[in-house]
Amino acid sequence: MGILSILLLVFFVIVALFLVGMVLIQDEQGDGLAGMFGGGSSSTFGSRAGNVLTRTTQVLGGLFIITALGLAILFKTPDTGDVAAAARQQGAKNTEWWNAQPAPAPAAVLPTATPETPAPAPAVPVKK
Q: Could you tell me if 57 and 26 are in contact, meaning their C-beta atoms sit under 8 angstroms apart?
């Protein structure tokens, strides 16, 4: 399945580039807004040039849609069918750091008297 998906992806890119090229090559030929202002027709390929370019664009558009659907089918999420279920399966480890429980704080360490350091002197009571 890996080779088929790579070949289909390469074919998809080639069809997309040809489709963009065909759209850029085409002339409006007086249709639409440009035709309202007297757009002239200058055909390089003869009187049937619009038909050939239009038909080629239609075929390339159809191939583009078919290969896009084929790629979507090949690269769908396996077994689950949706992204949410795949995320739940992969969510065994907690990657949401903002929801993670904080580590317990270490217990406060009280100073103890050692032979080298004397214990602190007791507080002297103040008389009123």
A: yes
* Residue 68 contacts residue 12 (beta carbons within 8 Å): yes
- The residue extents of the domains of the chain are 49-80
Say whether pTM exceeds 0.85. Answer: no
Token pair, residue 116, equals: 């080298």
Angle at 77 between CA 85 and CA 7, to 5 degrees: 170
The one-digit pLDDT tens for each residue of the chain (128 residues) are 688 888 999 999 999 999 999 988 887 665 554 455 555 555 555 555 568 888 999 999 999 999 999 998 888 766 656 677 767 777 655 566 666 666 676 666 666 656 666 666 677 777 76
Q: What are phi and psi of 31, to 5 degrees?
A: -85, 155
Please state the three-class secondary structure of 37-79 as a single string: CCCCCCCCCCCCHHHHHHHHHHHHHHHHHHHHHHHHHHCCCCC
How many residues in total does the chain contain? 128
